[in-house]
């Protein structure tokens, strides 16, 4: 190579190498995914599917790193993180999401969904999609509805079989206006707090109880501090997979589509795990000395009756027609 030629070619080779390296760096965009449960719990198995499928099917352009167990903060903080762009993906209960996207709050109304099939078909249908679409204007991309499960009450004080038994109990609720209002209507001392603070509060006796799906109750070993479990199933707890627009908008439309598809597959895995943990969890709770009370249909109806003043408020806030559209969906 002559001196003149090498003077021109060397910078070209260097530029090509830099471009190549930049390309490699782009190919390795890392997406941080945070959630608050263990790896083997119902969010964990969904998150693991996302990480694996992204690695296998997105041509190496993305890598999803999963941070379980609230390593990235409580659910409210993580939701704020996706809005700010400091976290890329969050798998969270709907609990705090209503503080950012108020349209999701309607799904947190007690006794709205009859069973899992009902909840899933509404959330996967046009009503669910229309609600997910509302997220964009709030600076969040809602990739899909996922599942936490039907919530049940636990406490350390007494058996709860009627609304009167719940009255006066100091129960932790999620940081969710609809839940807080419903519990206050029952005469419960509703105490909103982030989940990571709950176990210490139960241990120290600053609260008497809490409510959560069986999978959460058992994996957190709440039987060590809570004697009474009532299968109230008082509210279905949806979850959501949220993404930061900053990260989402950098993806090509084809990659965005693929990520949504992968997320929906992850939700199927998540929902199956909710049911599995529920089956296994009840046995484990019993084995560990929890006193479990199943409510009869009539007893559940008593709770619904006691909640009527709250239902009237929810009708004013969300519109009776909108509530009925969910309640009467097949
Ligand atoms: O009770 C809550 O805050 C939620 O159900 C939990 C345990 C964080 C799971 O999303």
Describe this entry's structure for a reader.
By secondary structure, the protein is of the alpha/beta class. The chain has a single domain, classed as D-Maltodextrin-Binding Protein, domain 2, CATH 3.40.190. Helix content is 49%, strand content 20%. The strands form 2 sheets. Strands 1, 2, 3, 4, 7, 8 and 9 form a 7-stranded mixed β-sheet that branches. The protein has a two-stranded parallel ribbon with strand order 5-6. Helix 7 links the parallel strand 5 and strand 6 (189-192). Helix 2 packs antiparallel against helix 11 (253-287), helix 7 (177-185) packs antiparallel against helix 13 (308-318) and helix 13 crosses helix 14 (320-327). Residues 18-25 have low confidence and may be disordered. Bound molecules: pantoate. Pantoate is lined by residues 36-37, 75, 93, 95, 148, 174, 195, 212, 216, 237.
Give the topology, please.
Blueprint: H1 3-27, E1 29-35, H2 42-57, E2 62-67, H3 75-84, E3 89-93, H4 116-124, H5 126-134, E4 141-155, H6 163-166, E5 170-173, H7 177-185, E6 189-192, H8 198-204, E7 209-212, H9 214-219, E8 228-243, H10 245-248, H11 253-287, E9 291-294, H12 297-306, H13 308-318, H14 320-327
Parallel strand pairs: 1-2, 1-3, 5-6, 8-9
Antiparallel strand pairs: 3-8, 4-7, 4-8
Helix pairs in contact: 2-11, 7-13, 13-14
This protein binds pantoate (PAF).
State the end-to-end distance: 77 Å
Order of helices and strands: HEHEHEHHEHEHEHEHEHHEHHH
User: Please, how many helices?
Assistant: 14
Q: What's the helical proportion of residues?
A: 40-55%
What is the radius of gyration?
23 Å
Report the mean per-residue pLDDT as an integer.
94
Q: Write down the CATH class.
A: Alpha Beta
The major sheet is characterized as: 7 strands, mixed
Strand content: 15-25%
Flag low-confidence runs. 18-25
From the coordinates shown, what is the CATH architecture?
3-Layer(aba) Sandwich
> Structural class per helix/strand content?
alpha/beta
| Shape designation | globular
CATH topology: D-Maltodextrin-Binding Protein, domain 2
How many structurally independent domains?
Answer: 1
